[in-house]
Amino acid sequence: MKRYKLWNYLLSILLGLLFGVGLSGGGVLPIGSAHLPNIIFLMTDQQRWDCLGVVNPHIRTPNLDRLAKQGILFRQAVCQAPMCVPSRYAMMFGLYPSQLGVYANSDSLPDSALPSRPLPQILRDAGYQTAGFGKTHWREAIPSTRGFEVRAIGEPRKSVAYEAGALMIDDDNLPGLQRYFAEVAKFGPGEEGVDGYIGSMTKIPLRDHRDGWVAEQCLKFLDHGVDPNRPLFLYLSFLKPHAGMNVPQEFEKLYDLNTIPDVPQPPWSEEPATHLAAYDADPQAGTRYQEWRTAWEKMTPLERRQTTLRYYANCSWLDTYFGQVLEKLKKLGRLDNTLIIFTADHGEMMGERNFRFSKYCLFDSSVRVPLILSGSLIPEAKRGMIDDRPAEHIDLVPTIMHVLGDGANPMLPGLDLLSEQQRTGSFSEFHGGVSDPYRLAPAYMWRKADWKLIQFLPGQLTNDACLTMPVKGELYHLTDDPHEWNNLYNDNKYGAVREQLKTELLMHLACAWGRGPFSTAQPVTPVHPKASPGSSHQKN
Questions:
Q1: Where are the alpha helices (DSSP H) in 184-245?
Q2: Three-class SS of residue 241?
Q3: Alpha-carbon distance 189 to 178, whole Å?
Q4: Where are the domains of the chain?
Q5: Alpha helices, DSSP H, located in 79-209
Q6: What is the pLDDT of residues 231-284, one digit of tens each?
Q7: Structure pTM?
Q8: Eight-class DSSP state of 416
Q9: Are 2 and 29 in contact (CB under 8 A)?
Q10: What are the tens digits of pLDDT across the range 496-536?
Q11: So what's the pLDDT on residue 310?
Q12: Quick check: helix, strand or coil at residue 478?
């Protein structure tokens, strides 16, 4: 075996000298190398950037707070698209949605059209044991596990979350899944209807919740499945705090309704001429916003706070699972040489801008995300640091590759977050929530610590007429106007700032897109299996 490892190591050096860095992440690393750090990737769905105890004193997340205090909190981090599928593709490939061709939740790529190796495959090829628990949302009809050799997903087999070779929740706990779907039957599509956001205290066992089952599978793996001879890539990704708000009593009881702050509302009653107003005008956006607004306008302030309380309770619930997983990793000795990542795929509006929920816009509550790098690999001098550099999700793949001692793919637009590299601003893009031929014309964001620029065209990309339309814009001074209520785009007093940000946005896109790679395959609209008892509750 030692001779085999030595041969692998020498072969990797030879291949590197002959062929240089590979497209999908660099040369081959020696299999089973003892020096390789464990990579622990923790993730939630739709958790706001300010829903960490270290940022917001109203919320209780002691385990994530501990990671932040022992690591680096990136306070200005953003996702690459404010919706699940393109955001998660961007994270796993280190490429922007517009480079991948995955723009909206109905887009996906088949295994045969991937532009490079996704992160789990990169690490598996480097000799890692790769174990994935919970949501990735590749959304292709029947994709592979894409590098995960151990895989468990808290969704039914007949859903767009299915991956060939994965253990699905209904394989193991069908009665529990049925009890779960019965409890949320009134919550609406994606559990994001009015009743889904009002929520309730759950009456079913925690293991019947999809996140409870996923946590259970992860803990079982740590008890019995870890390979002692390989470094570990552990991916744990939950479905909440995304609605619905059916939370366990013990976590709801952590909070006092009287201390929950009210959600601030703008000084106007109708959304002005923003990219969000253009999205609302798109017939594909549906009537969900009006349903939320009609219901919430009739509520008392205390009734409205109940949703915020339950959202916080969901965050505290998942934090407890993270703590259990980290404790088992510690007992296994897997935190001695480790990089720990925590983030969420995007944010949540939580009733802002006249009682709007979910995401689907480029405002901070939707596009900013919590991001923590922690673990033993963080230099002592940087532990407990708040880093206000413009960080992005696409930076995670290059950061991990540099930690491994392997040069990151030079085609990737991301940076190594553990280096001193710094971009001038951060980028996110929004193309509406649906696929061609009805995709909304693009909206692009360029964000700095104190200013945000948004450029967009109203309407759909149905023909070339949109190319002749004047570009619309938004400009916000985030320091003075953190809620983004006062659009300064057409105020000549700020013309120099506007033009400078436009130039920076243009050059950022030119450099990122110029390096590529663009996906040459057409995005594939997934073939939805026949409806199952829970298929209408698929979260996005």
A1: 194-198, 210-224
A2: strand
A3: 16
A4: 36-424
A5: 84-93, 97-100, 119-125, 169-172, 174-183, 194-198
A6: 999 999 999 999 999 999 999 999 999 999 999 999 999 999 999 999 998 877
A7: 0.89
A8: -
A9: no
A10: 999 999 999 999 999 998 877 654 444 433 333 333 333 33
A11: 98
A12: coil
Look at residues 1, 28, 25, 23 and name the one whose alpha carbon lies nearest to residue 13. 28
Q: Quick: pLDDT tens for 38-88.
A: 999 999 999 999 999 999 999 999 999 999 999 999 999 999 999 999 999
Local structure of residue 116 (DSSP, 8 states): S
In this structure, how many other beta carbons lie within 10 angstroms of the beta carbon of residue 240?
24
Q: Please say whether the structural domain 36-424 has been given the CATH code 3.40.720.10.
A: yes
Dihedral of CA atoms 481, 484, 487, 489 in degrees, nearest 10, equals 90
Bond before 196 cis per omega within 30 degrees = no
With a CB cutoff of 8 Å and minimum separation 6, the contacts of 468 are none
| b/e code 160-197 from CB counts within 10 Å (16+ = b) | bbbbeebbbbbeebeebbebbbebbeebbebbbbbbbb
Residues whose CB falls within 8 Å of the CB of residue 363, separated by 6 or more in sequence, listed in order: 276, 349, 352, 353, 484
Q: Kind and range of the H or E element at 400?
A: helix 396-403
Ranges of beta strands (E only) in 409-520 are 426-430, 443-447, 451-456, 472-477
Query: Tokens in use for 117?
Result: 């190796």
